[in-house]
Design a protein that fits this description.
The chain has about 525 residues and is mainly alpha-helical. It has 20 helices and ten strands. Strands 1-8 form a two-stranded antiparallel ribbon. Strands 2-7 form a two-stranded antiparallel sheet. Strands 3-4 form a two-stranded antiparallel sheet. Keywords: Cell outer membrane, Membrane, Signal.
């Protein structure tokens, strides 16, 4: 596992010497390009903690898996409480321990990314004049900021009201080995200070140009700063940054999302994402990838018949029938035997977004997609399409969205409302929902707070399964209520806002290797909740 003090152990290569730095700066900046590409490839890395884990964890496929951990920890994505569910510990909230696999996974993922960014920043220094090096520096700064923005929300409560609470150690390109070996938890405010500085500096260096949407450009940097400003309640700045982030991007149309989608970075709404190809290790692995665990149409994975991902039935019931997004989840009629024993569910024709004319013939019998793949229960997600939109495709080379224009529109609307521009916020929200999701939509909220709640609802629906719901719950200081819905009874928790169990613990390995953090400095260990 990578710890925050492993400064001399860069994941993608080694430490760059002073002579190498000078050579790259003066002769061939392109030599740094591979390290910059590594910032993206690290986010779809296969089996990153295999050595520590002692095998292959089937959730070990990059950032998309972290997003599934976030969402499963909340109240919007029920799933089966079975051994096939590799996210069962988040569902049960049994993973909040210092020896837990998931906290190691988070720590390794984001501090690896920080190390790689720092290594680039040691070469592409603040005084570089080369155009390419300036871009590389901007990408590294924005990536480091994004990594800390994840870490600070994993290990501490939201910014407002917790500015002086301990967060995570800060490691930059200037941190020495001696400093890193005794590096205490920085405050939430200090981490956000670094995030904001990095993003502002990145914006000054970046342009809209890039080779692929898995690389950071100026739009991504503005989008990340919009997120940070939203968390800090810098409302006007959040609205301004969100507007700049979505320049040149348009939301998915109503027609686009009237069928399983969200699998291709070429979509007009995608500002940033994981770009996955058939040759990537996570695809070659077969089932260690996002579609395996999330796509209900894959011909090779856990999601269809073993560990489905569902929407909270109470949330689903709030979606109007005129909203195209209601078709992102499939209902089903119960089927019973002669003794009134439940045999399963008949999904046929129950979801308009599914192509029910698709058939697979096996031994002379035609099966539709639900019957062939063994869909288990109602409220099953059909939001995420299979690779190349081919039902039963065994190749799981789908891209994963990390930032979409729709998110920026919702940030802008919330920020406008909370800054006092309620009419402007309603206009922003209604224009989006009416034109792209529900032509009958009218926003009835009349106050800033009511609008914020309505936008939270829109975020819960629009961004479902993309890693936002848990952090939104934390940011808005909402309770976690899984009761009265389609959660298994043993995990149907009802927990107050900012319950201590929401925070993960800093990994034991970090405490053992960093004298600046003792066991007493860690987040408190609390009992697993009971339903």
């Amino acid at each position: 596992m990578v710890t925050s003090c492993d400064l001399d152990e860069i994941p993608e290569g080694g430490t760059i010497t002073s002579d190498q730095k000078d050579e790259i700066q003066s002769k061939d900046p392109s030599k740094l390009k591979a390290d910059v590409i590594g910032l993206s490839s690290n986010l779809i890395k296969y089996n990153s903690i295999g050595e520590w884990y002692g095998g292959t964890a089937h959730f070990d496929f990059g950032f998309a898996s972290a997003c599934m951990m976030y969402d499963t920890s909340g109240m919007d994505m029920p799933s089966e409480d079975t051994g096939y569910n590799w996210y069962r510990s988040q569902l049960r909230m049994t993973d909040r321990t210092e020896t837990g696999t998931n906290t190691y996974y988070f720590w390794n993922l984001f501090y690896s990314e920080i190390k790689m960014a720092n290594d680039i920043l040691k070469v592409a220094t603040a005084d570089v004049e080369d155009k390419a090096l300036k871009q590389y520096r901007g990408q590294a700064l924005a990536t480091r900021a994004w990594s800390y923005l994840n870490l600070v929300q994993i290990y501490q409560f939201t910014y407002k009201g917790h500015e002086n609470a301990p967060a995570v150690p800060i490691v930059t390109e200037e941190t020495t080995g001696e400093q890193a070996a005794s590096n205490p938890r920085a405050t939430v405010a200090a981490v956000y200070d670094l995030i904001m500085k990095d993003l502002t500096d990145a914006i000054g260096l970046l342009t809209a140009d890039r080779d692929s949407k898995d690389q950071v450009n100026i739009n991504v940097a503005y989008g990340l700063r919009a997120r940070a400003n939203l968390l800090m309640q810098n409302w006007q700045d959040a609205a301004t940054d969100a507007e700049k982030a979505m320049e040149g991007y348009t939301p998915y149309s109503r027609n686009d999302v009237s069928k399983p989608s969200f699998n291709d970075s070429n979509a007009s709404s995608w500002i940033w994402g994981n770009v996955v190809t058939e040759t990537n290790d996570i695809v070659q692995s077969g089932i260690l990838n996002f579609p395996s665990h999330m796509c209900s149409f894959t011909g090779n994975g856990y999601a269809p018949g073993y560990a489905g991902r569902y929407i909270n039935s109470k949330l689903y019931s709030q979606i109007p029938d005129t909203d195209v997004r209601k078709g992102w989840w499939a209902l089903g009629d119960p089927v019973y035997d002669e003794n009134n024993k439940l045999l399963g569910y008949d999904f046929t024709g129950k979801c308009p977004n599914v192509d029910w004319t698709w058939k697979y013939n096996y031994q002379g019998v035609d099966y539709n997609i639900a019957d062939w793949l063994g869909w288990q229960a109602p409220y099953l997600n059909v939001k995420f399409g299979p690779y190349q939109n081919v039902y039963n495709n065994a190749t799981n080379a789908c891209d994963f969205p990390m930032m979409r224009a729709e998110e920026m529109i919702l940030i802008k609307a919330e920020a406008q409302a909370m800054a006092g521009n309620v009419s402007g916020a309603k206009s922003t929200l209604e224009n989006f929902v009416k034109n792209y999701r529900d032509p009958s939509y009218v926003c009835s909220a009349s106050s800033a707070e009511a609008l914020q709640d309505e936008i939270w609802f829109q975020r819960r629906v629009e961004l479902w399964g993309e890693g936002f719901s848990f952090f939104d719950m934390m940011r808005l200081k909402k309770p976690m209520d899984r009761t009265g819905a389609n959660y298994a009874s043993n995990v149907a928790f009802n927990l107050p806002a900012e319950s201590q169990i929401f925070l993960w613990l800093i990994p034991e390995d970090e405490i053992n290797n960093n004298s600046g953090i003792s066991k007493d400095d860690n987040n408190p260990v609390v009992s697993v909740p009971t339903a």
